[in-house]
Amino acid sequence: MVQQVIEALLKTKIGFDPNIIGSSAIAKAVRQRQSACGLPDLSTYLRQLQTSSQELSKLIEQVVVPETWFFRHREAFSFLGHYVKSEWLPIHPYSKLRVLSIPCSTGEEPYSTAITLIEAGLATNRFSIDAVDVSNKVIIKATRAIYGSNSFRGDKLAFRKRYFQQTAEGYQLCNLVKKTVNFLQGNILNPLFLAKRGKYDVIFCRNLLIYFEPSARKHTIDTLTRSLTNKGLLFVGCAETGQMISNGFVSVRQPSTFAYRKVERDVETRRRGDTEMGRQGGGGMGKWGAEETRRRGDAETRKQGGGEMGRWGDEEMGGQGRQGDKEELPIPNSRFPIPNSQTTNNKQQTTNNNQDSLLETARSLANQGQLEEAAALCENYLSQNRTNAQAYVLLGEVHQGLGNDKQAEQYFRKAIYLEPNSYEALVHLALIQEHRGEYKSAATIRQRIERLPKN
């Protein structure tokens, strides 16, 4: 009972879902702090937590274990550098780029960002970086900027020679980079958090949302949205892309980058208006009007009349049986007829282009928050392209956005069946199982992710 009260206190203060962190990990941290305080029992320690903000901060620091290194997921930083040189600088020749890194942990991410901007051609007085974390302990370490070998991973370490000096304590970061980062202790769940710091052009918030319970996650996304300039960039973790689908962001669609651009309100409203006109048979996106209704009818007919997406093995469907050994042919519709033996290469190429356009339109609708429309287009696409793993990943993300985790799981499993090394599908599946409390199954999937070939 006391353990549950402590977990509820942590949930209220930092928004972490105890089911994701794990009750055993929290219990271990509590025992360590209880012992450090010299308190005889758990109830006494709980009273200490409830009356001492200092002790609560120490417990939070014990629970939050940072895991980071310089240029983690390097593609994000490569994209940032390209964005600054090719897009931001030409439009803002005299402005100052403002960046937020949250949570910043021990500083590797904001310092990697600073190095990226310097090497992209920005002078140090042309950008500023605010780096925020709930833990004062990691802020102190980040401010010292001395790192061990574990903070440098991979084989691209030329930057270490340029910006660090090896000392008896470790690698000391040069002052040129250090002075560009302003470290702050703060809690994003605080209603006044960042209220007076203005808007940022770029925000890094990676691998935080996945640990939050739903209300804390929504609050965090709302805060980040308010803090980002129109057309600003938000970088999230690879497992958090589904969280952004219905929140006014558009994916930059850059491989392994997981970055989103904030959509201007008037543009977003206009797009939604065009889509509504399309439903009514008007202009704008009218081509998705009556024709989309017809496609939905075709999809419903397929669901009622036979195999939904073709055959899937017992293992892929979780032992629920197979739909038959004979694979059904796609059912034709007015937009995408099945070519016969007389179909020319030009017609085939046109069909392929139309299919690619259909999937891209589904992505665009999903990014605009029009999830039901995106799901219908994904299903239509998959009726003609039943072996496209990425389409199943997108459909799974859409159903996650709709709150249909059970259906999302099925689509992620189909993606993995087709592409066993599908990183995105594996991560999403692990998260769904963790939220359901199936920690052993999730751990097995995460071990599989760790064994994936490195790019």
Can you describe what's shown?
This protein starts with a helix and ends in a 5-residue tail after the last helix. A seven-stranded mixed β-sheet has the order 6-2-1-7-8-10-9. Helices cover 52% and strands 10% of the residues. It has helices spanning 2-14, 18-21, 23-37, 42-51, 53-63, 74-91, 108-119, 136-144, 158-163, 175-178, 214-227, 265-279, 290-305, 345-367, 371-384, 389-401, 405-418, 423-435, 439-450; strands at 97-101, 127-133, 146-147, 164-166, 171-173, 181-185, 200-204, 228-235, 249-251, 259-262. The protein is α/β, with parallel strands linked by helices and 455 residues long. α3 crosses α5, α6 packs across α7 (108-119) and α17 runs antiparallel to α18 (423-435). The chain is built from 19 helices and ten strands. The chain has three domains: 2-63; 74-263, 3-Layer(aba) Sandwich (Rossmann fold); 286-419, Tetratricopeptide repeat domain (Serine Threonine Protein Phosphatase 5, Tetratricopeptide repeat, Alpha Horseshoe).
Nearest-integer average pLDDT: 77
Which homologous superfamily in CATH is the superfamily of the largest domain? Vaccinia Virus protein VP39
Main sheet properties = 7 strands, mixed
H/E series, N to C? Answer: HHHHHHEHEHEHEEHEEHEEEHHHHHHHH
CATH class of the largest domain: Alpha Beta
Morphology call: globular
Give the strand tally. Answer: 10
Strand arrangement within the widest β-sheet reads 6-2-1-7-8-10-9
Q: Which value, in Å, is the CA radius of gyration?
A: 25 Å
Strand content: 5-15%
Task: Name the helicity range.
Answer: 40-55%
Secondary structure tally, helices = 19
Annotated CATH architecture of the largest domain: 3-Layer(aba) Sandwich
Here the CATH topology of the largest domain equals Rossmann fold
Show unreliable segments: 266-351
Number of domains: 3
Structural class: alpha/beta
Amino- and carboxy-terminal Cα gap = 46 Å
Oligomeric state of the chains present here: single chain
